[in-house]
Every structure is written in structure tokens, then in C-alpha cells.
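dude i think i finally got it to work??
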Amino acid sequence: MDEGAVELTLVQTLAVGAVKGRYLTLSPSFQRCSLASWITENIRKKECCFYVEDGREGICKCGYPKIQHCDEAIKPEDYMGEQWDKHRHVREVPTDAFGDISFGGLGQKTGKYVRVSSDTSCESLYQLMTEHWKLRSPNLLISVTGGAKNFHIKTHLKDKFRRGLIKVAQTTGAWILTGGTHAGVMKHVGMAVRDYTLSSGLTEGQIVVIGVAPWGVIHNRHALVHPEGRFPAYYTLDEQGQGRLSCLDINHTHFLLVDDGTHGHYGVEIELRARLEKLISQQSLGNRESGVTIPAVCVVLDGGPGTLNTIYNAMLKHTPCVVLEGSGRLADVIAQVAALPVSKVTLVLINQLMKKFFGQEYKSFAEVQVIEWTKKIQDIVRMPHLLTVFHIDEDKNYDVDVAILQALLKASRSNEHAGRQSWERQLELAVAWNRVDIAESEIFTEESQWTSCDLHPAMFSALVGDKPEFVRLLLENGVCVRKFLEHEDTLCELYAHLPACFFLRKLAKRVQGGKIRRGQEPPPGSTKISLSHVSEEVRHLLGSFTQPLYVPARYRMTRDDVRLAVPSKGLVDLPCSGEEWTPDTVWDPGRDLFLWAIVQNNRELAEIGWEQCRDCIAAALAASKILRKLAQESGEDDTEEAKEMRELASHYEKQAIGVFSECHSWDGQRAQKLLIRVSPSWGRSTCLWLSLEADAMSFIAHSGVQALLTQIWCGELSVDNPHWKVLLCMVFFPLIYTGFLTFRRDEDIQRQAERTEQQKLAMDSVLSGSSDAKTKRHYRGPSQRPELKPLNCSSRLMSLFTSPQVKFYWNIASYFGFLWLFAVVLMIDFQAYPSWRELLLYVWLTSLVCEEVRQFYHDFDGSGFRRKAKMYISDLWNILDVLSIMLFIVGLVCRLQASGTVFYVGKVVLCIDFIIFCLRLMAIFTISRTLGPKIIIVRRMMMDLFFFMFLLSIWVVAYGVAKQGILIHNEDRLNWIIRGAVYEPYLIIFGNVPTNIDNTQFDISSCSVNGSDPLKPKCPVLNDEDMPAFPEWLTIIMLCVYLLFANILLLNLLIAIFNYTFQEVQDNTDTIWKFQRYELIKEYHSRPALPPPFILLSHLVLFIRGVLLRYPAQRHKHFRQELEQTEEEELLSWEAYMKDNYLASTRQDKSQSVEHRIQDTAEKVGVMSELLEREQEMVSATVAKRLSKLEEQVSESTKALRWIIDALKSQGCKSKMQPPLMTGKSSDRDDGESSGQETDEESAPHSLARQLQYPSSPVKRFPVPEEKVPWEVNFAAYLPPVYNQQDSSDSDPSVLDRHRNPEGRTGIRGKGALKTLGPNHILHTVLTRWRDAEHKVLEFLAVWEEAEKRWALPGCSAKPGQSLAQALERILGKKLHNKTKSKLEAGEEVYKGYVDDSRNTDNAWIETTVITLHCDKHTPLMADLNSSVESSLPSLQPLQWREVSRAACVCPYQREALRQIAQSHNTHF
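look at this
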């Protein structure tokens, strides 16, 4: 692939895995050019191409003036003589308005806009928003509709709406769609966004608010027009001069300005907005193809007739709606009737409510309009699962966001075809919204029964989406980490979806073979990330001393896990005992989850994963090592990512310390086992080694770790032995046989005896009352453990001299002897020919060289030669050893030369080497608790001194060169130049004041005039009187200034630096000393027992064993211990229990902290304040409501009294006034649910037959409200259209009146889509069978209807007068009918009668007969049926056996028939 193709790929694609949502950063000019090019090709606008005046001078019928038409439109040749037609005389051309829109003012709000044709493809618009406007795909679509004019809302409701809308948009990542203008409900949405932006301090808000507005009604739209786009376009909000037009709302973030080619027409955007909302709701939700689409919800405030149409159409498309009670007009009308049965939502009630809430506007409504609105409101109320009313005065204290999310979940839950999928969809939505509160209250209830496998998709989404609260909730509700990570593909997918982080770049570089440069995101679609890649990278971070965590073979589980519930609401997976477990096949799901969270530096998810770890201390230390290594390799120490990594590493070091402290406080010996136990989960490393590699100084400094190190340091000797006893026994070793020294074996024997005695006493007390001898033998005999035996004489002697402590003492004595011998040779016995002392010194040094070689090649922990060599070189003391040995060899070579000069040079080199050997003595005393910390301070001060000398050298050289140049003229002797320019100024600092700068102290005999005397300095420039000619005042001033800065300023600065270093290091010297103490203990633990020079014998033995005999190297069991499986399981279980105690105590300490108490008190005060405010508002609202109700009742009572009086006066005659209508409405309402729909006792009369839109036709029914359905009810305004799908002469009213629908009016006359007037008979045959032998699952034979896209019962139309047998023969076929003829005649008739069908009319309707026949599974008839099913698969109407259940996708009356069949077979439906 060439470079151009690579660049194009990088521009047009996203990064791998979780980097998919992060676009590459391109220059703004490149982005603008790309956007302009794409919009020009894909987005169009509309313009009039035929100018025809509409009666106003200079104005076309399209609404635009003549000057805004092109010349072709003013003088058209193609349309001469035609009438202006919107569809014919409006054409599409490339759009000329797009770019960025700036509103100015506070915050300099900037958005994006584009002018689009009303016929634009919604796919193109969605591509524009997601790819070019860089909007993330939404997790929720909120369509806000309602009043387009300004209206008043109560302050409390307005606050709840704004707060709830922003909260739901922020937490769920929703898109908000509005009309986009600065009026009505759109203005309220904009104000909510403004408040959020100001309060959060964001210049670019996180809330996406898209305004879909008509282009032809936008005021000041000329500022948006430019053929190449405006970046930005400056838009001015001018409400005073907008007239009948509208201004764009300045708080929206994006605008789609819909253009239909006309000017001044509202509502042209409705169709495109509906199509766009439908397209967005069909997109897949989230990153994975889970089948869940983006949910949509409609929020209604205020509103008029247009809003009613929007709600009605939305609910017909199964979009839930949330209506805010108290917002006015239509919203209040629907809120008033939402809780009523449909039978009570009458035309009279709707008229009353319209008059009440619409006020003067009600007078302009026609009777037919109110009838249609009543019908639509009844249909809306009939869908309570899609309608939610938010009541301001309800007891539940939540904002609109909860109502919106509950409405979506309620709509999803009510889907009768979904079953379990409905619950899974709700959970997927809650995870996408990141609303744990909704999931707890609505999804994880007692009614829902979840298995771990059901929650795995949600678990994956929560992990990938970085939703730790949801991950914890899912773990609490049954997710088993073992089952979730059972397959290798799941973990690989998790790593493939890592967010952009440093580890992902390293992993992608490893996958690509090292072709990814720093700062470059990996290209997608390359090699798939596998666990072997992860294992290699993690091993690189942990260290080569570990084994790969994931073997290249198939990643599999080798033993089951036991799930242990812990108080921390987490689950710890512990392996079962009794199964084979090899280190190469170890599987730890808790570790895998924790490691995945750690490498991406995710604190919250890592904490959850750590709670799932089996080996929590090792996991915490490994995390600390990985994070510190990642921070080090990032190469940018000051970046936020590196700082966060170091902070998280320190956090897990503290976690490891906390758990280990808990373990050590309970049982010190078991805690020490945790330190040296080999952990198969972490590459067969140990906690001790991981802490050393991670530089976890605080962990190493823990008293429990130090106790282990002290125990290793003492070897088999007791740690309680005083030093003087050990030293005395080193010289007089027979004392060890007298009990003078205590051995650890003796202490263990004593403890075992005490424990055995305690167990014996406890057992005797338990069994004292038992007379069963068998029971006593059972409890006593087998329980006895093998007794420890005391050490014999040889073992005691060997234990003494192999103790690291004793080795150290002997080596100290040996080293002092070496230095004493070295000093004697240099000062007393350095002869031309080596004496016996000098030869002994050479032998002694040879033993030291051999020991250094042994240390260099000795692989203590099995980490490999390269790593061992790297560690050896990185140690400063080892470098000092090598330097001292190299200098000794150089001095020895020079010393053996015959030349006297070279001989003396050799002695000088050896003298310098003696200094280095003496400095090396400091490393030996690092073991001392007194001297060790001081040596650390000295090392730090030496580093400070190095930097100080750099500053000091500037002043020394500056003063020295200036002084030398002033005093001496053309000095050419190098040694005297260095003396004058460097040496003398340096001595001045220590008080050696020079005399050559003062003329009074000048002595010409102390210098050489011409510099001819090599032992005297050159005289300064002299005058005629042989006195110095330099300016004395200047040199004295220079000296004073130099002394002021060098002696006072810089030296005091050095003292201050030393003081700061001392104070800083003093606090940590104990920790640092304890950390460095390990290296010395490890060195002497592996060191041969004999001290130099006798150590040569040990080296000879090691050489023979390792090189000649090829014996394997000995492992050090004190630092690394393999445990048996049973013992390891007990230890891990105990560690998990200790971890739970630690977490519980941590949470308790946190809850009792002062900060937490203050925060808790503040929250309680805030809640109480809000409750008091709500209570006050509720009381005032209740009082106002009761007063209003009382006034209404008084008014009605007055009318009733007047009617009674008139009736009495007329003595039986009719009164002049009509009796008042008493609405029996109760003033109190139970608002348990925001849309608590009461069910009718009787089903609604053929609601499907009264749908406003007749199916498969453009004809609309006349609206028929519920109470006007019966023919007996007078309905004077009823004027239904006549429709016949096929040409027919049956349109005569007299003919139609002969056939009346028995269920009542339908809103349309004629045959419609049916074949005949009157009843159209359909016969259905239901063939059933049992799926299983237990008769638990009943199935029926279904046929696929391609037109309806659903399964149905087999059936056909029955002709008038046709017998049942003839109709069944048409359904089943002649062959199958002959075999079932006898049985079908005896078949059970399930249903016979009228069918509520959308094709029914006033004069034609469908009636059906359903017959059921149950077939035995093992009969020839069943074989024929199965063969018919198989042969029907290639046809357009395939047959299939389907389960009889509520989820059966059939029409309502067929589902009712299946319910009766299931009831007759006593099976669940």
C-alpha cells in the first residue's frame, strides 16, 4: 500500500478496538474542505423555477419576492401557460447554507447548521451528523414537542422539566430533537441547555440539541447563505423585528433547516423530522450487534391540535410519550383523562376540558375537529403502556428524567411478543443510559429471574462502556465472572475494545510488528488481538522472571470455581479442591478482569476486579508493578496519564499493605507463607519478589515482611539470640551444644508441644462425658501430626555457619583483615619483589574476584542471565567492586614492571585503589539499623553536592579567569594558569585570602618577572617603580563580591540543600533502608559459608558441581515455596476472608470520617429543604384545587336548584333550562403510576375497525368516538366516506343500508377491501401437538403471511352456502383432508362469530370459525403433516410448528383462540 493510500485510510477510519469512537485530529481547513465537498454532493435545497404572482405585487406564489428568483424562473419557456404547482415548479439544487453558526453573547455559543431539502434522504442526514459533525450515536432519542408559541409554566414544574431533561440527556448520551426556534417549548429546552452550560462551566456543552426548523420561516436567514459555507456565520437574535417569522434558538447545538421551496409556511419540516426520528430509532444501540435499537420517546408540553397529531402518530408507531401535567392546553387535557376508562372519555368531557384549558381558542374549533380529537384521545388512552403522565404533585420525589426512562421501560415491558427479550432489552437500555437507579427499581425486581448467562451481554456493555456502578450491580444480581470469561473470545473482545490508552498503543505495536510510531493510533482491520499478544506485553511489564499468564494453546478452564459471597457485595471466585491443576493451565477469571482494568488505568473497574481476585495481595503488587512500568515507558512524566498511573500504583500498594496487615495481625506464620508462596496466577512469581520489582518500599518496610527477612537473615538460628552470643559461638562453636544459642527448631518443637497439650485438654473436655470408645479412637488416633525432631550435632554446626548472619560477621572480619593487610603492604612492605604478605594479598584479592564472578553468573530467582547481568550492573556497589578490582589489576601490572617510574606509578594506583576498597566498606554496614539510614543520606547528599559544584564552578572560573587576566600578562605555563584561574579561587572559599591582589603585601622576590623560574609564579604587570600596575581597588572589590557570593550565598545554599535533603530523607530513611536490606540478605543467603580467602575452596566445589558434574542449581526455598494444593486452597480462602475484613473496616472508617459525616449531613439538609418546599407547594396546590372543585360544585348545585324551581313552577311541564350535567368525578385520585390506566369491564367495541387510516388505501375514516359506535346512539354529524377497493355497483345507499355492521359504526361505508357486503366468512383450522413426552409444551401448525409479515392460523375464505367439509378441503388439501376428515368432523369448535378487523366497514365485516384438532405425535397423520411442513419451506407460504404462548406472533382474535386451546389442554399460555 502506497503512502497516499495509507494517509487516506487514516483520515477516513477510526482507531482499533475502543478507539473506534475517537477520530483522528485533522486541520480545520482540511475538515471544512471535506465537509463542503460532501455537502455539495449529497445535500440539496429547493427553489422555485416558475415565477407566478399570487396577487401581491412582486411576490410569487411560492412566497418569495421576484428578486430572489433566477432569470430562468422569471421568463420560463418550459412552463408557459401552466398553473403554478408546488410539486412541478419547485426543483432541487445544491444547498448554499451550511457551516458553523455563532450567536455571540455570553459564552460565544457556536453550533452547526445546514439547509436541506424536504425530500433529503434521512440516511444522508444521519451520516452528516455522525461522520462529519462528529456526533456520537445516541443511546436515546428525545423528541420534545408541544406549544410553538410562548406559554407559562409553573416555576416548580419548569425547574423539574429542565433539570430532568438535562439529566437524562447527560447520563444516557441522548439526542434532543425540537423545532429549533426561539419560542414555546423549544425555548424552554434551550434555556435548560443554557443553565447546564453556565453551571458546568463548559464552552462546548455535552448536551446535543438538534433543531429541525422550516427554512422559509427563519428570520435573518440571509446571514447563513454562502455557496462555500460560512465558518462561522454570525446570527443575530432579533425578536422585535421578526414579525410572523421566527428566530433560531441560540442554545441549540445543531440545526437542520428544512426547505420545501416556499416562504412563510410552518409545518413543512414535520414529515422529514418524522422520517429522521424513525431512521434513528432503527439504528443499533451501542457497539455490538445485540439486536437492540436506539429507543425514542416523545415529551409533550402544552400543545395544540398539531401536537395531538404528533402524539397520535408517534404512539401508533409504538413510541412512548411523556405528558407534563400543568404545562397547559393539550398536555393538561390528556393528563386529565389518562387515568379514566375509555368509556368515560366522552365527547362531552373532551368539550368541557377543551373549553377549560384552551380558553378563547376553543371557540374557533369546528365540531368535526373536536370529534376527531376525541377519537384520537380515546385511542391514546387505550394505549396506557405508551402513555406516561408526569404529575407535579405526586408523592414520589423525582424529576422528569425518571418519568422518561420509566416510560421507555414500561413500553418495552408491555411488548407481548417479546417475553424474556423484553427484559433483556430493558437491561440493555439501562446499561446504555448508565442509570443504575432505574435498573434497581424497574428491572432487578423480585418478579424477574436472571441467570448469569442472561446478564453477560449487559456485563460486556458495562465493562466496555466504563460503567463501574453497573458492573457492581450486575455482580450483585448473579453474574458469575467464571462463566462470563469462560471463553477466550470474550476476553479477546474486551481487549479489542480497550479505550485509547498507552497499553493499547503498545499492544497494537506488538500486533503490527513494531510499525506504530509514538502518538499514532493503530489502524483498524489489521491483525486480531489475541491473548498471546496480551501475555507477551504483560510479561514485558511484569518482568522476564515471570512466566506467560496465557499459554499459546487454547485458553480454557481447568477446574471449577466456588463463588464465595463477601460483605463487600462482590464475588470472589475460589477454585474447588480435588482436581488437577498445573501451572501452565491455570485459569483465574478474577485476575483476567482485574488485569484488563489495570492496563487501561481505570480505577473504578480495577477496584471491582480486585475484589474478584483469588490472590489479592499478589494482584495488588502486580498492578503496582505494571502501572509504574507503564508510567516509566510513557516517557512523559508530567502527563496526566502518567500521574494517574503512579497514583493508582501507590493505591494498590496501600491495598496490599492493608490486606497483609490484616493477615499478619491474625496469624504471622500464615502471612509469611503468603509472601513466599508461588502464585501460578501471576506467572509463578511471589508476593515478595513482585513487591521488590514494583519498588513497593512501604510494603517491604512492613513489620511482617521485615520479620520474614529477619528470619531468613538468622537462618536456622532464633531471631531472639543476642549478637554477642552469636559472635561468641562463632569463635567457641562447642557452646552451641550447651544450649547457649537457641535454634528455630527448638522453638517450633516447644510450640508444637504447647499446641498438642491444648488440643489434648480440649478433646478430653469434649469427650469426657462420652462412653463410646470408637468415638474416642476416631478423634484421638489419626489427628496426631508427625512430631518434629531436635537437630543433631552436625546439623547444629552446619546451621550455625550457614546462617546469613554468621556469614556476614565472618565476611566483615575477613574484609577488615584484607584492608589491614593491604595497608601494611602499602605502608611497610612494598618491596621490589613481592613478600609473603603481598602474595597473600594477591590470593585474598583472587578470592574476591572469584566471588564477584560467582555473583555475576549466579541466577538467584531463575530470571535468566541477561536480566541478572542487567541487575548486577545497575547496582552502584557492584560497579565500585569492579572498579576497585580493575584498578588493583592495573596497579599490579605496573608494580611488576622493572622500571622504577612505572613501579612507583603502580604503587600510586594501588593507594588510590585502597581508598575505593575503604569506601566499599559502607555497603557492608547497610545492614546496620543505625548506620544504614545514614549511608542513604550521604548518598543523597553526594548527588546534591554534584549539582552544587556545577553552580560553584561558574563563580570560581568566572572570578579566577578575570583575576588571572588582570594580574598576569600572557602566562603560557599551563600548570600556573590552572593554579591562578581555578586552584587559588577555590582555596579562597576555605579562608586562604590571596596576597597578590594587594600592593602593600607585594614582594618581587616571591615571583618571576619573565616566568622563567618554574617554581615561582609570574609577576604581575609592573610599573617603572617595579610595583604592580593593576588597579588595586578593582581587584579588592572583585574579591569581596566573590567571597560574598561564594562563601556566604553558595555555601549557605549548600547547607540549606543538605538540611532539606536530610529532613526529606530522614522521614523515609527507615523505609528505604528496610527496602535495600533485602539485597544484602539475599547476597549473604546465597554466599558460600567460608569467608575470603578460604572461600576459594567453596568456589572450587561449586565449579566441580556446576561445570564438570552438571548438577542443577539449588533453589532457595526461603524465598520461594511451592505449596500443596490443599494447603494452597486453605491459604487462599483465608486470604480472601482477610481481604473482606479489611474492606469492611475501610468502609467503616470512611463512613465515620469527618468529611463523610459533613457530606452526609449536607445531603440530608438538602433533602429536608426540598421536601419542605414540595410540601408547601403541594399544600397550596391542593387547597387551590379543592377551592376550584368547590366552586364548580356550587355552580352546578345552583343550576340544579334553578331547574328544580322551574320544574315545580310549571307543575309538571318542562323547564325552560336543561338540567345540569353532574360529572361524577372524584376530587381525589390515586396517582400510584403516572398513567394509571383503569381497565374497562367490557372490551372496547371493534377498535381495530375504527382506525382512522383505512389499510392499503389513502382513504381516512370518519372519526367515531367510543360512545357513538352503537347504531342506536344518535350521531347527526356522522358523514362517513364510501370506499370500494374494486369497482363495484354496490355503492347505492339503499343497497348499503341492507347490511349493517352488527358491532356498530366504523367510520367508512362500502365493501372496502372485502369481497362482499355483509359477513365475509373465514374458516381456521388449528392443528396441535405436544413437543415433548412430558406434555409441557403445546405447539400449533402456523402458516407465514408474507403481506402481514407474521405467522397465522391456516385458513381461507368460506363461500356463502359452502359446507364445512368443502372449506376444510380447501385449507388442508384433498389428500390430507381425506385422512383427517373423520377427525375434523369431531373437532372442537373454539370460536365462531364477529372478528374485529381493520378491513371492516359499516356494510362489510369478517366472521370466522376456528376448529381445533389435536394430533398424536406417533401416528401416520403426524408423519404426513411433518412431510407437508418440510415440502412447504421453499414456497411463499411455508408451514411451521410454533409454540402456543402469548409470544405467538398472530393477530388478536387468533391469539384469543390459542389461549382457549391452551386452557382446554391445561397448559401455560
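Residues 1-25, 553-585, 774-784, 1219-1242 have pLDDT under 50 and may be disordered.
im so relieved honestly
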